[in-house]
Amino acid sequence: GTKLAFSEWNFGAGNHISGAIATADTLGIFGREGVGLASLWPLSTNEAFTFAALRAYRNYDGKGAAFGDTSVRATSSDVDQVTAYASLKAGGSDQLCVIAINKSSTPKVVGLFVVHPAAYKTARIYELSGTAPELVQKPDLPTRGSNMFRLALPGYSVSVVVPSKS
Questions:
Q1: Is the pLDDT of residue 137 over 80?
Q2: At residue 41, what are phi and psi to the nearest 5 degrees?
Q3: For residue 86, what pLDDT is reported?
Q4: pLDDT of 115
Q5: Sign of the dihedral defined by the CA atoms of residues 153, 159, 165, 166, in that order
């Protein structure tokens, strides 16, 4: 029953949006693949973007809201440039959270689809992009079909999408 663990990891650029993108993508992969432990090893005294990417998973709203513990399938319409990871929280089968990562320098408008039996109507959006290592809440987004969202992502960005049934 022992799970895979990474005792030290860091992809660098902790003071740049590219470091946030690498960190967010790595955390999504770790969750999807069931990694049991992953310890970040700071490489410098300025890891502000790395820590912002961690907040995308552990405190995206500044009030303790977090990515769940059960992986759910999510895809984007541009899988080469925009990766998506989704989860549910234990005990709350409708508490879905999606991380969408635009790894391209150019803005992308993508379709985002989440596999879940609940029908969501809107989603809150929190975005990390540009030169400030902060997650900023954006206007709510309506669905465009059965758990499908049309999402405008800035170049080099990490977005937290939190669907709601209301």
A1: yes
A2: -115, 105
A3: 96
A4: 85
A5: negative
